Amino acid sequence: MKARVHVMLKNGVLDPQGEAVRHALGALGFDGVEGVRQGKVIELDLADGTSEAQVKDMCEKLLANTVIESYSVEMI
Asked: Contacts from 56-64 at CB under 8 Å and sequence distance 24+?
């Protein structure tokens, strides 16, 4: 069993990496990009019986900084 965790900065939190990507895309001629938010994807290989609630607990304690980041869990 696997879980995929998507972590993104919350709305209103400045995203300097996303802004750098947006600027670079413009420099490459991709003028239609008005904003970029950059996040991360964490894929976990889980032992059988590991619950989504346990994965969310992992996120709350380590995988996401919940002050400035939000996350979603996808069990796959």
From this structure: 58/5, 59/5, 59/7, 63/5, 63/7, 64/5, 64/7
- Across-strand partners of 71? 7
Q: What is the pTM of this model?
A: 0.88
> Given pLDDT bands bounded at 50, 70 and 90, which one contains residue 73?
very high
Q: How many domains does the chain have?
A: 1
Distance of CA 20 to the CA centre of its chain: 17
CATH number for the domain spanning 25: value is 3.30.1280.10
End-to-end CA distance of the chain: 6
Give me the domain span that covers residue 30: 2-75
